[in-house]
Specification:
The complex is a heterodimer of chains A (271) and B (84). By secondary structure, chain A is mainly alpha-helical. Chain A is built from 9 helices and no strands.
Chain lengths: 271, 84
Amino acid sequence: MKHGAGSKTLPWVVLVLAVAAYLGWAAAPASALYTRFLTPSRLLALAALLKLVYLLGATGWAFACRDRLEVDNPARPAWFLLSLGLLSTFAGQLSLAPSQVVRAETPFPSMADIFFVLGYPFLIAALLVLLHAYRDAGFPIGSLAERVGIIVGVGVIAIVVATPILRPVASVGGPLLDRVLTVAYPILDLALLLPLALLLRAALRLRGSHAGEVWFLLLGGFVFLCAGDACFAYFQSLGKEHLDPYVHATFLLSYGLIAGGAHRQLELLKS
Amino acid sequence: MTTSEAVEVMAKVLAPYIGDTMARSATAAHCQKLGITAGPVSHEQLEALLGKLRGGLNIFLGRDKSASVVAEARRALAPREGAR
């Protein structure tokens, strides 16, 4: 299937403009642009709709990749798991959308959190299956010592970085479920980061190629997902409202990059 | 044709799909597993190597596209094999 250059670049232009709008909101919230036109309620509704579009696209394209691969292809289960994880995240975002669009509020905790949390095991499993497939196909993913070194290194760095972030979040008052969920997201992100680090190492060797483009987009999306959860933990628990634009910007980047990666992979499979 | 010449040709064909670094390291790793050492390489060894690379490419490209890339590599290797 042929696409014009315009139809290929338009989604990226929309993503860049959206992220720029949220970063602008963070930088100059009192400016006329953000008090008259792009008001917080409009920006919340816009973010909700854009997230839904990107997540729906990412889910559909990831499933189409699974569908396109042969039954015995070791990457097929990974794309299926990825599509399930994205579908669960989409369901979470969909259940939040009415409150965000109509009432300009994000309830927490809510039904959405069940779907968001459920999505993580699928996403983590997808990355683990891919790592396994890479290794079985003979692609170098590093010696055992290198892999252990990367996992320990990332784990230590994540704990050193996450502890000062999570300590105030965990120690703040409020219902137990709120605190458990707020801490659970960064911990699930840590579990996601470990296979992600190993895949990033393999993806570096793919740079400059079609497959490399797919994996830099996907893995970049996961990195922003982790960053978004860290921002959300601070924003939600400590009431740091100035972080709200960053929460939207990082999640939009995350979902947009994952959708772009899944779409690029589908194009590659169709080529 | 020597192993290093074959690796060079294969890496050139595979690079647009999986990158030059991955193409070289995957080809070298498969050579090692198949016991293909430096020096002249036989037609059977080349076919075994292409078969392994095809299995790996399946992950990124699917079976049909992998088959066409491997066929491209085979065509690129053919003149050099004939020149032995």
